[in-house]
Specification:
Distance between the termini: 14 Å
Radius of gyration: 23 Å
CATH topology of the largest domain: Rossmann fold
Strand order of the largest sheet: 3-4-5-2-1-6-7-11-12
Bound molecules: adenosine-5'-diphosphate
Helix content: 25-40%
CATH class of the largest domain: Alpha Beta
Length: 483
């Protein structure tokens, strides 16, 4: 079949398990395998962060480069433990970063992000075109603003390689002072309202929106939302004008990484057929977090960046209500200090009912999903969201704001959905404190009716949250562009 020869270069700044700050890494770590299984040949191009270079199972030098940001660099070809081909741009003067790849310790944008990700994108375009290395790719698939200049460099070079941009979160736009443009080596007419210019600045994301051949975003609802003035974050008009060249393809999760039947990070394994292990996971979680060990106390969790996007400031106002109603809350995350402080204060006030872990902890994220009855995702906007997919796979019921991918993946437990046996969670809208309160109350009420709750849990466990269906959609898209 013709698809077997389709060569795709993913260009992304994160890839699980090598380096991760959020859902982007999960997608880049899992989707290539599903695409390879569907007949593509995907290589992932990554910045050569120390964690990336150290994490590759095999590696060899593919090419030496003389001028990357004014210094020498190399392309390292390797493979991940899960068998995905990777090429890393080994340029220590740009990527010798051990912490967050975008933000410094004070939470500000790292100095040099413009040159760092511009050079990354420029080399990606040359690699895709076959100027470096011996392979010419059919498709360059750029992810988010860090890869945003790659489609612009392809167009500027007149390359026949087609490019796709996936917008994982339109809020991250790669904005830099307009002077940045002078150092990019792009034609002068690329700076303008139809190109990189954005309100007298340069936007790397806008570069990709302007010059790629197709834009996807990570859920159909978010694809509609970003075309509105309210959801478009300044790009609404430009995205509307893309017409059929903009579509939404739902994210999935890696069913091997998130598998309650085999997960080594949880105290007892379980599956849809036998939930005894989940009961043990709940008791173990309550014990380890210092919560009252009570199988009938509804245990809610949060695994998230602690930001206003995620609506967690709203949830912070509900902690007394949750505790006083007999519920428990186990939170893992980090982010805005005001939100962190609010949850820490709540945990101090209700130590046997609220437990807060500030930080990033992959195994704990698994234990929270496995041991909790429900997860809160009260996001004000959510391009797709992955935690609700992980939650459903672990029989943990999502309580979500009705927006973006949360709208597309969670079916509200209204009477009709319950009767039809399709309810998988609780949605609320508009997304504000009042409606979050009502949603929490609905969750308490549903949990109290054990049979109803068990049916919702069963429906969650029956959901297909993997990548196969969406990988087929990406394949159709690639094929249509490459023909
Ligand atoms: P976003 O990319 O906007 O942060 P997603 O829901 O798309 O949100 O993806 C978040 C990913 O990061 C999920 O895999 C989630 O489990 C993980 N995650 C978020 N915060 C933490 C944390 N503090 N510790 C461990 N994993 C986390």
């Amino acid at each position: 079949m013709p698809q077997t020869s389709l060569k795709v270069l993913f260009v992304a700044s994160e890839m699980f398990p090598l380096i991760k700050t959020g859902g982007l890494a999960d997608v880049v770590g899992a989707l290539p395998r599903a695409l390879n299984a569907a007949g593509a040949k995907v290589t992932v191009f990554l910045p050569g962060f120390p964690k990336v270079l150290r994490g590759l199972e095999t590696s060899r030098t593919l090419a030496r480069l003389t001028d990357v940001g004014g210094r020498k660099a190399a392309l390292i070809k390797g493979r991940t433990a899960s068998g995905i081909d990777v090429i890393a741009l080994d340029a220590p003067h740009l990527f010798n970063i051990d912490g967050n790849p975008y933000l410094d310790d004070s939470g500000n944008d790292r100095a040099g992000n413009d040159i760092r990700y511009a050079e990354f994108s420029r080399i990606a375009a040359r690699l895709a075109s076959g100027d470096i290395g011996r392979v010419k790719y059919d498709i360059l698939h750029a992810h988010d603003w860090q890869a945003g200049l790659a489609p612009a460099y392809l167009k500027a070079a007149g390359s026949p390689v087609k490019s796709v941009l996936t917008v994982h979160n339109l809020a991250f736009q790669g904005l830099f002072p307009k002077e940045t443009f002078n150092g990019l080596g792009l034609p002068d007419d690329f700076y303008g309202p139809d190109g990189l210019e954005y309100w007298n600045k340069v936007s790397f994301l806008k570069a990709a929106i302007a010059y790629c051949d197709h834009i996807t975003t990570v859920s159909p609802s978010y694809a509609l939302e970003i075309q509105s003035d309210a959801g478009g974050m300044g790009f609404g008009g430009m995205l509307r004008a893309k017409g059929a060249a903009l579509s939404g393809i739902l994210n999935g999760i890696d069913l091997d990484v998130w598998n309650p039947e085999t997960d080594p990070d949880i105290p007892a394994n379980f599956g849809a057929e036998d939930l005894a292990g989940k009961v043990k996971c709940k008791a173990a979680l309550q014990t380890s977090l210092g919560l009252t060990v009570d199988p009938r106390a509804p245990l809610f969790c949060v695994v998230s960046r602690l930001t206003t996007q995620k609506g967690l400031d709203l949830l912070a106002d509900m902690t007394d209500y949750i505790a006083l109603t007999g519920g428990q809350l186990a939170l893992l995350g980090s982010g805005d200090s005001a939100i962190e402080d609010a949850f820490l204060a709540a945990a101090k006030k209700h130590p046997t009912q609220i437990a807060v872990t500030i930080g990033y902890n992959e195994p704990l994220a698994h234990r929270l999903q496995a041991g909790s009855d429900a997860i809160f995702i009260p996001s004000r906007f959510e391009p797709c969201g992955l935690t609700q997919l992980c939650a459903m796979r672990y029989g943990c019921v999502p309580v979500v704001g009705r927006t973006g991918g949360l709208n597309d993946t969670v079916i509200d437990a209204n009477p009709m959905a319950l009767q039809d046996g399709v309810a998988t969670g609780i949605q609320f809208y508009p997304i504000d404190g009042h409606n979050l309160y009502a949603a929490i109350k609905r969750a308490f009420d549903a949990y109290a009716e054990q049979e109803t709750w068990n049916r919702i849990v069963d429906n969650c466990l029956a959901q297909d949250v993997g990548w196969d269906a969406s990988a087929q959609k990406y394949m159709q898209l690639y094929q249509g562009l490459a023909d």
